[in-house]
Design brief:
CATH architecture of the largest domain: Up-down Bundle
CATH class of the largest domain: Mainly Alpha
Bound molecules: 5,6-dihydroxy-NADP, zinc ion
Largest sheet: 6 strands, parallel
Helix content: 40-55%
Number of helices: 15
Shape: globular
Oligomer: single chain
Number of strands: 8
Distance between the termini: 35 Å
Radius of gyration: 20 Å
Length: about 375
């Protein structure tokens, strides 16, 4: 068991209708106005937008809006948000949407308190020392952005998809109402399932020290995702399955699973972000392509944990059988498992590997993952 600091200052408000209290939660934090950030239309279609605005008005919270945040969110739109936040001296950012909206809100929160270019934080040229408070109402469960300090944004000019991570942008309050997630499309349900599994297994396989408690939590996460996804494919309105899926998503990347482990990292995410950056594939869809290939490439470096995974998650007897079972399950739920499934040609591998190797350096994996190694992994996909 390694030393760690575990600090997660986010308050979760979980349950039906909780979004109607968002104005009160913001008011209780002493905030008078916000930037209301959202995506490309789902919250207007569902009627959620009206309820959020009503709750803000009821509590005397003023607001400016930033709409049109796309999946694989863009730096240009983050900059638009920073401009609005500065111009109107807004005191907080409220994200209503999925991870892309939440991540954009966090970047805006940091950028609004900074005189330089917000991209400085992503390329580690500057450190975040201050940020506006962030609030979220989640409409899609996958990233755990509702309870962590991470934000991933794509620089639309340089095609770099990079991240920041600081507790300063952990949401103050996040609302998780599983009912708001019932309209998530089957393809995004599948991508979300893959993403949640990815968040838990990255450190599970790569850490040099991994306490049994942590391993069991991860195995429980993976099994719960598999069970609840299969229920939701048949019955999207199943509240209990939707709720369990959402809470599992939050636990998979809120700091719980790696606490006490040592030496773990996120190579699949590092590689995937380049698939999203260069081919605009959904994050989870990129992961379901990268993960089986990476597992086949990496398994000999930690055979005991791969055997354990096969046995505990799938009741199977070998590392290879576990990898095959996970890949087959990704396919079964409709997630792509080969580059060709996402129309990415083999001739694109070199550029992907070059792009990802830049992230590898930023994430401290430059030596382990040079361009040739990343290309070798992608060849397996
Ligand atoms: O644009 P809108 O209208 O909101 O539509 C979205 C979007 O098209 C739609 N959607 C969201 N809620 C819905 C809904 N459609 C119907 N009903 C609802 N209730 O779903 C689409 C995808 O939304 P998005 O926010 O992009 O999905 P997700 O939550 O998976 O976020 C993905 C982004 O998060 C980053 C990824 O890289 C990617 O950019 N990540 C963030 C992390 C973090 N902050 O810790 C960690 C992750 O590993 C990940 O990298
Ligand atoms: Zn992810």
């Amino acid at each position: 068991m390694h030393d760690f600091t575990y600090y997660n200052p986010t308050k979760i408000e979980f349950g039906k209708d909780k979004e109607n209290n968002i104005g009160r939660y913001i008011k209780e934090a002493g905030i008078e106005n916000v930037l209301l950030a959202y995506g490309t239309g789902s919250i207007k279609k569902s009627g959620l937008y009206e309820r959020i605005v009503a709750s803000l008005k009821e509590n005397g919270i003023g607001y400016q809006e930033l709409d049109g945040i796309v999946s694989n969110p863009l730096l240009s739109r983050v900059n638009d948000g920073i401009t609005i936040a500065k111009e109107h001296q807004l005191q907080a950012v409220l994200a209503v949407g999925g991870g892309s909206v939440a991540d954009s809100a966090k970047a805006i929160a940091a950028g609004a308190k900074y005189d330089g270019d917000v991209w400085d934080f992503f390329i580690q040229k500057a450190q975040i020392t201050e940020a506006l408070p962030v609030f979220t109402v989640m409409t899609l469960a996958a990233t755990a952005s509702e309870m962590n300090g991470n934000a991933v944004v794509m620089n639309d000019e340089t095609k770099q998809k990079y991240s920041i991570g600081t507790v300063l942008v952990n949401p103050v309050v996040s609302v998780i109402n599983p009912e708001l997630m019932a309209t998530v499309t089957p393809d995004y349900l599948a991508y979300s399932a893959v993403d949640i599994i990815a968040h838990s297994i990255e450190v599970y396989f790569t850490a040099s020290t991994h306490p049994h408690f942590n391993s069991r939590v991860v195995e429980s996460i993976v099994k719960s995702v598999i069970e609840t996804t299969e229920i939701l494919i048949e019955d999207p309105d199943n509240y209990d399955a939707r709720g369990e899926f959402a809470w599992v998503a939050t636990q998979a990347l809120n700091g719980l699973t790696p606490a006490g482990t040592a030496g773990g990292n996120f190579p699949n995410h590092m590689i995937e972000h380049s698939l999203s950056a260069l081919y605009n594939v959904a994050h989870g869809a990129g992961l379901s392509i990268v993960i089986p290939a990476w597992m086949k490439w990496y398994k000999e470096q930690n055979p005991a944990q791969f055997e354990r995974f096969a046995k505990e998650v799938f009741g199977l007897n070998s590392a290879d059988a576990g990898i095959d079972a996970l890949e087959a399950w990704f396919s079964k739920i409709g997630a792509p498992v080969r580059l060709s499934d996402a129309d990415i040609p083999r001739s694109g591998i070199q550029a992907l590997a070059e792009n990802a190797s830049q992230s590898a350096k930023l994430w401290g994996m430059g030596e382990q993952y040079p361009i040739e190694t990343i290309a070798e992994i992608l060849e397996k996909a």
